[in-house]
Here is the input.
Amino acid sequence: MFPSVALIATASLYFLAAVDAAPSKRQSDNGSCQALFNKCAGSVDKSLSNVFAIESCVFAATCANGSRPVDNFLAALFTNKNGENAGVPPQSVGLPRVTSTVLNSISTDGKTISQQDFINGYYGTLSPEGPWPSDAQVVINYYNRVAVWTAFCNSNIPFFNFQDYFQYSSSVSSNGCSGTTISTLPPTTTQPPPTSTPTISSDASCQKMFTTCINEVNKDVSNIFSVKSCVLGATCFGGQRPVAGFVSTVYGVKNSGGSSAPAPSALPRVSQALFNAGSTNSEFLTSPF
Ligand SMILES: *[C@@H]1O[C@H](CO)[C@@H](O)[C@H](O)[C@H]1NC(C)=O
Ligand SMILES: *[C@@H]1O[C@H](CO)[C@@H](O)[C@H](O)[C@H]1NC(C)=O
Here is the structure.
């Protein structure tokens, strides 16, 4: 089964210029998304609390329909598990993130999800019975939803950003890859981030603000909005990640993965000195604070 899939995937790399186009008539998901949904529904608990600890659910969330595929998927899954009048389905933003077990099972390098990892995982999760998409391009289109939202269009998607898609893509819009071209060229080798700091952006200047912020902010991040690099770092996430996500990321790095980050609303606001500095050179005029 896999050799032919790999062959199709390789062949379709040449057509990536057309990724944003709707799949052609001959390209069909062939019921594979529904099959993933059914597998997922067979394993997930009624509250959906373990949904992103299950590989079939992760893939089923990427292929779901609608403008907010992840939350649409969760709503359909909740109804499937609990019936039509079961109340309000959980939203992705409040659910545990994709687990490291699932990430490591999909990834081949233990750090990122590549397009080929995603294709292999999608088909692997459907094994052995299928049904298979008529064309691997269908699966590549699903991968590109994640790549575009996370803005990792020219390199593999780091675990952290892949997880973000499932938690935040239904509630936070993204600037996507405007200005960049989706391709499968080898990842660029510019500006590797320090090994101890997660990659939060494919934009080198944004990543630099983040690493500078990590160096300058307090351990409890209480001064995060008084540190210029942190304010700029949060801003340059664009629409792709909420301020809360930025704060919790910084807090996690400062506290070895600690997850009790303060909510942004509980933190002192952007300091007046910084605001004044920003408003004279307009650095912060479009900031979301
Ligand atoms: C998504 O929408 C298409 C077109 O309406 C439909 O054929 C397909 O079954 C839907 N997929 C799921 C998983 O609901
Ligand atoms: C759909 O999946 C079935 C079952 O795996 C397979 O036999 C069939 O060839 C697939 N159809 C298309 C159009 O790829």
Observations:
- The chain has a mean pLDDT of 79.
- The first strand starts at residue 112 and ends at 113.
